Model the fold of this input.
Amino acid sequence: MQRRALIAGNSAGSPESVNGVLARFGFTRPEQVEDRDAAIEEMRDGHFDLVIVPVEGITPSQLIALEREIRRDANTSVIATAPSAESDLIVRSMRAGVHEFLVYPPKPEELAGSVERLMRRSRNDAERGELVAVYSGKGGLGSTSIAVNIAQAFGAMRSDARVSLVDLVVTGGDVRVFLNLKPAYDLSHLIAKGSQIDAELLNSLLTPCPGGVWALPTGDSPEDEELFDSAAVGAILDLLRTHFSVTVVDCEHHLSEATLTALDAADRIVLVTHLSVPALRSTQRSLAVCRRLGYDDSKLCVVVNRYQSGDVLPVKDAEDLLQTAVYWKLPNDYRLSAAALTKGVPVSLEEPGSKLARSYADLAKKLSGASTASGSFARVKDVQGGRLRKLFGTDKGVRNVS
Ligand SMILES: Nc1ncnc2c1ncn2[C@@H]1O[C@H](COP(=O)(O)OP(=O)(O)OP(=O)(O)O)[C@@H](O)[C@H]1O
Ligand SMILES: [Mg+2]
Done:
């Protein structure tokens, strides 16, 4: 499909040079409007992949109007131009959400550089895989079992799917145990690389498992915790979702920075619970935290694990208590779960036709249905650091809410 561009005034330089540059990126002939007011008006009425506007002398109300349009359509890239690179103007434009700034008239190669960066950004956005975070405020309810087995189920769903499984349990995470991995590398190796992380390095550190799953286990050293700040974890998750159709994250049971980053970035959060009073109370608290963080209810998927018909607490009571519908129920099968864990294989490999294996597969199918409008890492970057303060009025990285 051809891309649409909108140019206000002569903010982009001579039409011949602009058209030439844009044509190389698959744009139709750009639409031209007289000034930035007209451009903002046009943005309100239709979608443009790229907008180029002059910002010299922009008034606060024009800036607010421009910001509103940029926020409304996340797939529009905006380049601002002005006769000189005035820092105050650049900062104000960037704060309003403008993506690139160029001195007018931009040289064709500068314009081409900006457009290339922007189109790469939107191309990546378009290809972003789903991110599913598995979380419970309480330990022992089955988070790791669910993360490992739905990752396997996502991989089995399509022969061309690539699934990554990330262990965010900093010290002594169990993903390696559940899959019997002896990885040469783990997440701390990746985080230690800092800004040098790229797709190639990432791929070389992931441990391939059967069935289209690549695992990123954690290490065993407690000092890793310090390396797990939200910027590092966010960058890794962001990279993973541009290279894998689905990324599944096994989160810690407390709201560490890493956990919050994963929850923020996730399209879906699987909140693991049991039909027992302590588990449900913990889930109630987790839901309250998620709502305080502004997550849409459609992002929150309460999964009752180890469900059996004889449960004392009916599902209806759990739903009343949690004030949300139970998204899925996974049957209780301790024998099979333990056997799979002992062998270090997913349940579906141990007993493919079992009720539990089928239930994991159907849960994965349901989760991969309609995706929610949700946080990309761009959003995570906006809010990182402020999250814990907002929740607890503290700068401390870790609070237990179970
Ligand atoms: N559907 C199930 N039926 C029966 N037993 C299960 C089921 N799912 C998980 N289990 C068992 O529950 C125990 C805890 O599971 P798991 O380690 O996945 O939980 P967790 O929440 O990740 O715990 P941790 O606090 O160690 O992180 C394991 O022994 C596992 O075999
Ligand atoms: Mg676990």
In short: The mean pLDDT is 85. The chain has two domains: 5-126, 129-392. The CA atoms of residues 5 and 50 lie 5 Å apart.
